[in-house]
Amino acid sequence: MKELKLGAIEARFADIIWANAPISTANLTQLSGEAFGWKRTTTYTVLKRLSEKGIFKNEGGTVYTIISKEEFYSKHSEEVVEESFGGSLPAFIAAFTSRKKLTQKEIDEIKAMIDKIGSYDT
Description:
Blueprint: H1 8-20, E1 23-24, H2 25-36, H3 40-52, E2 56-59, E3 62-65, H4 69-85, H5 89-99, H6 104-119
Antiparallel strand pairs: 1-3, 2-3
């Protein structure tokens, strides 16, 4: 995958594909027209851009996902942590929580994830 960043419209367009894949290009054009007011050419241009990023492929008039939405955002998150925090997840969490107070539920969920990861080592 080349570039893991998506603009707001690209992300909404990608969500349409992820929610409907595999999807015919005709159906995608119709949904894009309804969602964004796009013509066929605009849909194909944006689809080509996302295909060049390695997210989707257009084969025989049908659009397929190459990576899932979850995998895409997981890789994107890893890239952000690597680029902005030198790969340090604790530094990312410290920066994130310095401006946003976590709820008790969020704290409990994070603890549970850490406990689960820690159980892999035993």
